[in-house]
UniProtKB/TrEMBL annotation, chains A, B:
The gene is glcK. Keywords: Kinase, Transferase. It comes from Alienimonas californiensis. This is Glucokinase. Transmembrane segments: none annotated. Belongs to the ROK (NagC/XylR) family. It comes from the Bacteria. Its EC number is 2.7.1.2. GO terms for molecular function: glucokinase activity.
Amino acid sequence: MPLSGQTTPGGPPLLGIDVGGTNIKAAVVDAGGVVRGHGSVPTEQELGPGAGLDRIEAAANAALEDAGVGLWDVAAVGLATPGPMNLKAGTLLCPSNLPGWQNWAIREAVEARFSKPTTLQNDANAAAYGEYWSGAGRDADSLVLWTLGTGIGCGIILRDAVIEGEHSHGSECGHIIIDCRPDARVHPGTGMRGTLEAYCGARGVIARARDALNVDRGQSAMHERLAGGAKLTPKLICEVAAEGDELALGILTETAQLLGVGTVSILHTIDPDCVLLAGAMTFGGPGTTTGDLFLDTLRLEVKRRAFPTVAEHLDVSFAGLGADAGVVGAAGCARRAFAG
Amino acid sequence: MPLSGQTTPGGPPLLGIDVGGTNIKAAVVDAGGVVRGHGSVPTEQELGPGAGLDRIEAAANAALEDAGVGLWDVAAVGLATPGPMNLKAGTLLCPSNLPGWQNWAIREAVEARFSKPTTLQNDANAAAYGEYWSGAGRDADSLVLWTLGTGIGCGIILRDAVIEGEHSHGSECGHIIIDCRPDARVHPGTGMRGTLEAYCGARGVIARARDALNVDRGQSAMHERLAGGAKLTPKLICEVAAEGDELALGILTETAQLLGVGTVSILHTIDPDCVLLAGAMTFGGPGTTTGDLFLDTLRLEVKRRAFPTVAEHLDVSFAGLGADAGVVGAAGCARRAFAG
């Protein structure tokens, strides 16, 4: 959807850039939060910050070309990256997905390269802001977005503000504790015991499935697939759940219930309008039988455990922007800071 | 400390009113957050809203007289009451401590009676705002206050804003879930399973102590005191802990650790500067051996479980305003709304 060099009625477009460990995605986003052009290049973070800046520019140029606008049309640039970072300083610290970019003052570097005011935001927070601005949460005054994948990303938006925290560790709700007992699961990455991610991150789901398989020695569809050489992955669990395998359906249900426990803790802290689900670990996501079952089970668990007043008025849904949430949200953060 | 009819340099004083199930406390608070006069009368909520308004006025008049100022000197009135309430509408809903005041539009009634702009705030939130404004959190940009008693009150302040929630249920962190398992403790009041209050509210502490006594059939000091006719109360647990009784010390330690679990979940959601402890259930509180042990154990648990970046820069301390936190915070909320 080229802009033909014109600005939209709501103001000039923004450039949103979402840096991942594998790819850098860029988008030209209009003032209404609609993507007008996409670009994507491999991150190649191992080449270091200098090359990284070139890759970011290449992604941006591709998006500008796709949108049919020039950099001069753009009001500001919004960056989203994985943490940990120092949001106030605009620097990356030691992101595990970007080891080649450690301690890089990325905001300043991008600002200098594009000569545009630039914001830096955590990628999970940016995705939440994107959904808030123009996605499934656009009618909400506050929302929580869960991005379920290898890790459990979270972003919380309260009345147009991102909960960033004093040390850039706000909205890190994948690391809230849902099981206080001494024998709770330990997260293999963080070493933290009993956290939501230890149970519902990809590795936690696989570990729980393995435990269930060890207990249940029957001949489930999952046993058969594994005996046939299949690897125990979230995708496999989802597939056999869709075939009606009870063991896999039990894992799906338990995952949704545990996510419900964590969600209720956030509801009783923030009391938002809306909770959204995104990411690969949503058991197929919207429009699939297993995805809908996952969402419905989560809704039920929230209703069962939360204060009625909180649960009654809460919208629990799938997110709406898909893979664009990060670039849209990054652009939205730039708009709020410089062009809102 | 009479004001002698003069306003302080920072602006006119405020009237803070903290309504409890037993007493209504009022205070004249200067623009710097210092109490200049106190008043207190029995709530007698069973007499209904009409009498309640008279009681509120009586408490206010006592505070005005104590401060040596007139109502005409006061810029605004801040009310704090127990929930549940509708903060936007300024009405009480069905507070269990104020059954005689159900569905009362208290903010409007007080505003009309005093002819002063009036705010309504949840009492736990008001106490947190008081500590933030002029108490132990006055140097913090954000804080969490735990008020430990029969229930576990919580208030969260983020950059001068109270987290009220969309349905007046923000900062209700006594009801976050710390134990997701099916056999977790059930809160005797709310019926909720695995919540922080189910473990660390007064009744939860007593229930855990009773369980420990049933398991440990030895002759602890606690066994002896109970055999001698003493009642199992938090006060008794605290007393025998101070005498070095291991069973009681175990309860103290476990309570602090479980509160630590809940605290870490909030830290990974909000990432504040400061966490404060107040209330009767702090095992003696500041200046006592058991109170200091309780605080130190909480600090240790937070350090053990939270992200290092979050825990490293966090101040975990006792609150500073004692029983004045509610009236000071209520006054502070009025100041922020009308005279800030």
